[in-house]
Specification:
178 residues, six-stranded mixed beta sheet
């Protein structure tokens, strides 16, 4: 871990949220800030990170368990630093165009965690490359039959959000608590 880095951590089921996190990391790093993009399951501590940008895929209105557990386990540390939350999930033309609501875990964190901003981005799904390991028969069947193939991620919108975060961080002295 690099001291005073910005952490971009994600929980991704099929890779769409990982891709969003990587793009956010690229945009923030392009401004000269130190950035680490990591799977949220591989983040043991927030020590050394000046800010956190956390994201998760959304399934049935919830963040993936690894992301929800991470927020619960690191609540005090997240509340002490600048934090942004993003979710990835609506699929299909109609779902991606509809106003998306924050998942239950994000809504619950708003009062006590006080993230600087939250965002819900449309996702992507590619049945041909999806890894179905770890899924039960019913879940695998539902995903295969009902998730539409395609990429609905709004890259300009994601990049604009990340640029806004980078501008806010550039105004904060490194190591400053919130």
């Amino acid at each position: 871990m690099v001291q005073d880095a910005v952490l971009v951590a994600y929980a991704s089921r099929f890779g769409s949220t990982k891709g969003i996190a990587e793009r956010i990391g690229e945009v923030v790093a392009a401004t000269g800030l130190l950035v680490e993009v990591r799977d949220i399951a591989d983040v043991a501590t927030l020590i050394g990170y000046r800010a956190a940008i956390l994201g998760s895929a959304v399934e049935a209105g919830h963040w993936l368990p690894a992301a929800a557990t991470f927020i619960e386990r690191n609540h005090a540390a997240l509340a002490a630093r600048s934090t942004w939350l993003f979710s990835s999930g609506p699929l299909g033309d109609r779902a991606a165009a509809a106003p998306a609501t924050d998942p239950k875990e994000v809504t619950a964190a708003l009062g006590s965690l006080r993230p600087r901003d939250t965002r819900v981005f449309a996702g992507a799904f590619d049945r041909a490359t999806a890894d179905f390991s770890g899924m039960g028969l019913v879940e695998r069947t539902v995903v295969r039959r009902f998730l539409p193939d395609g990429d609905w991620r709004d890259w300009p919108g994601i990049e604009a959000w990340a640029s806004g975060i980078a501008r806010e961080l550039a105004r904060e002295p490194a190591g400053a608590a919130r």
